[in-house]
Amino acid sequence: MEQFMGKWKLTESDNFDEYMKAVGIGFASRQIANIAKPSLLFGVGDQGLISMKSMSTFKTFEIKFKLDEEFDEITADDRHAKTTMSLKNGKLIQSQTWDGKTTTIEREIQDGKLMVKCIMGEVVSLRTYERED
Questions:
Q1: Domains held by the chain: number
Q2: Residue 38 class from Cβ within 10 Å (0-12 exposed, 13-18 middle, 19+ buried)?
Q3: Alpha-carbon Rg for the chain in angstroms
Q4: What is the pLDDT of residue 84?
Q5: What is the per-residue pLDDT for 83?
Q6: What mean pLDDT, rounded, does the chain reach?
Q7: Who's near 77: CB < 8 A, 6+ residues apart?
Q8: Is the model's pLDDT at 102 over the cut of 90?
Q9: Buried b or exposed e, range 15-36, using 16+ CB within 10 angstroms
């Protein structure tokens, strides 16, 4: 997890609107999300809980988790999901399940950048973050 720690700023976003459509996010919420340029902050807090906070001018959203332990998540778009975060081959893999649907979000460091791949069925979005000091 060490490689993820710190603050990251969104610099590129490809196919994110199509991903949000596939997840079932409404038009107005997608418009706001497409404008937002969030920063991600990874840290470790009390009892060894890992925190991942997304901050933008529109919304701040945080989850706290232990690897490989399912937890209840209310997503930034208000879905109630069962979520598991796992570290596999250097990738932080987030699996969200709600209403019979599942999405996977894979985060990995490539060439010093945080690459976030959002997968819903056949739809894939790639978002790139650069370290912010």
A1: 1
A2: buried
A3: 14
A4: 98
A5: 98
A6: 95
A7: 20, 23, 25, 29, 33
A8: yes
A9: ebbbbbebbebeeeebeebeeb
Half-sphere exposure at residue 46, Cβ-oriented, CA atoms within 13 angstroms: 0
This prediction has a pTM of 0.93
Q: In the prediction, which pLDDT does 45 show?
A: 87
CATH of the domain at 105: 2.40.128.20
Domain enclosing residue 102, as ranges: 2-132
Q: What is the dihedral of CA 44, 86, 2, 61, to 10 degrees?
A: -50
CB–CB of 93/65 below 8 Å?
Answer: no
Compute the Cα dihedral for 57, 92, 74, 15 and give only its sign: positive
Structure tokens that stand for 132 in this block: 């912010």
Distance CA 31, CA 28 (A): 5
Residue ranges in the chain assigned as alpha helix (H) = 16-23, 27-35
pLDDT of 118 higher than 90? yes
User: Cα(3)–Cα(61) distance, rounded to whole angstroms?
Assistant: 21
At residue 124, the pLDDT reads 98
Helices 16-23 and 27-35 pack at an angle, to 10 degrees, of 150
